[in-house]
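Subject: dCTP pyrophosphatase 1

B.,
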Amino acid sequence: MGEGGGEEVAEEKVTDISLKELAKKLEEFAKARDWEKYHSPRNLLLAMVGEVGELSEIFQWKGEVDKGLPNWEESDKEHLGEELSDVLLYLVRLADICGIDLGDVATKKIVKNSIKYPPKIC
Ligand SMILES: Nc1ccn([C@H]2C[C@H](O)[C@@H](COP(=O)(O)OP(=O)(O)OP(=O)(O)O)O2)c(=O)n1
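Prediction pasted inline below.
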């Protein structure tokens, strides 16, 4: 998605993109298709949960999986990346539609977590 919602092929590896930039791209994507009317908080939440289900299916019945997925086919890793992306994108869009600055609140939550679970006690 480019400026104004125009499509662009993401051939180059994107190494650094912010949550705000993703939210902007998703807004442009929805605007260009007149899909803003579908992107209500509840719809986005349900869509995200559906994608969590698709993500879960990838791991279903596999037993424990080694970190880094050393024995997986490249196509399976690619599929995993797509499902992770769907979950992330709906989450980012949901937060944006709700007026929540996800980067800010997530950073603050990490601080809160570190106070709740101090390193020496764990
Ligand atoms: N109303 C919609 C529909 C889709 N998308 C975007 C967000 C997701 O990243 C992706 C989801 O697309 P699909 O519903 O086609 O789901 P999948 O990509 O998982 O396809 P499939 O369910 O066929 O595996 O498209 C969106 O923003 N708003």
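The longest helix spans residues 74-97.

T.
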